[in-house]
Amino acid sequence: MRYRRLGNSELQVSEISLGSWLTFGVTVDRDQAGACLHRAFDLGINFVDTANMYGRGAAESLLGELLSPYRRDAYVLATKAYYPMSETDRGLSRVQIKKQIDASLMRLRTDYVDLYQCHRYDHDTPLEETMEAMSEVVAAGKARYIGFSQWSPRRIKAAHKLDHVTRFVSSQPQYSMLYRKPERKVFSLCKKLGIGQIVWSPLAQGVLTGKYAPHQPPPAGSRAAHRKIGRKTRRFTDDNVLAAVQNLRPIAERLSLSMSQLALAWVLKEESVSSAIIGASRPEQIEQNVGAVGVKLDTATVREIDDVLHGVVRH
């Protein structure tokens, strides 16, 4: 495993990190999740990312149980707040941030998280109130650092200009071969501000593994075939996209890589990326994905990938 510094923080995070969206406490049971976490740690992954709304607290509760045997300083733990936790609990007001951090810490069975993130921007709460409340969480020792997910450059700049608040050290955008929107503005701005990128969906909801074929139904047991969560893959399962992805296979084979390793190596070539978050339901998936660490893609290969995906990439 290799490690990168997360923005201007003192956190050194593994290039591959373990996420829990749509998996732990939702589609992956306790024993499977425990096996995945144990294997991730064995392979050098030290960064675990979750959120209060994943399974409405179920992911945090399961992680709290599974992490309890490990030394707290042996891993980096991140969670988030914003999305509804009840009919009345949502957003990033001071009241909600204080309530949700305490609830998250209780479920996670810890006194603090290393990174507390604004899961989205709250348009119903003044930015000053949100940033002051997040700063108070850090001052109280309940989080070491703060970050955000999917904020626009305008909001990032506005937060940075505020006086007497804790600065963000991390951004969590969607980023993959197929979804490159953060490259143009977010990455460059964050680099100037000392904010590192923790990217989610680097495999485009599993599409970049190559397991989905055009003009065919998704394989049984896959995320796209799941009754409830399959809709989240639809933006990437257009037949034109799936056909283009299949044309990546010869590139991966030439480099002796799996399709997922190629996709993760592509993400990790970006120096702004501190870590790529993967999901897993089986330990062997983690083993394969970690194989992307240290893979260097030369300029010709990157250009070839761009040519293959031309016309289906979202910029």
Sheet/helix structural class: alpha/beta
Mean pLDDT: 94
Question: Looking at this structure, what is the CATH superfamily?
Answer: NADP-dependent oxidoreductase domain
Kindly estimate the percentage of residues that lie in beta strands according to DSSP. 5-15%
Q: How are helices and strands ordered from N to C? A: EEEHEHEHEHEHEHEHHHEHH
Determine the N-to-C terminus distance: 30 Å
| Biggest sheet details | 8 strands, parallel, barrel
Looking at the structure, the CATH topology is TIM Barrel
Please provide a brief summary of the model.
The chain contains eleven helices and ten strands. By secondary structure, the protein is an alpha/beta fold. Helix 1 (30-42) runs parallel beside helix 10 and helix 3 (94-108) runs parallel beside helix 4 (127-139).
Topology:
Blueprint: E1 3-5, E2 12-14, E3 16-19, H1 30-42, E4 47-49, H2 58-67, E5 76-81, H3 94-108, E6 113-118, H4 127-139, E7 143-148, H5 153-161, E8 168-171, H6 186-193, E9 196-199, H7 239-246, H8 249-254, H9 259-268, E10 273-278, H10 283-290, H11 299-309
What can you tell me about this protein's structure?
The structure is a single chain. This protein has 315 residues and is of the alpha/beta class. It has a single domain (3-207, 268-296), classed as NADP-dependent oxidoreductase domain (TIM Barrel, Alpha-Beta Barrel). Helices cover 35% and strands 14% of the residues. The chain is built from eleven helices and ten strands. The protein has helices at residues 30-42, 58-67, 94-108, 127-139, 153-161, 186-193, 239-246, 249-254, 259-268, 283-290, 299-309, and strands at residues 3-5, 12-14, 16-19, 47-49, 76-81, 113-118, 143-148, 168-171, 196-199, 273-278. It is globular and about 50 Å long.
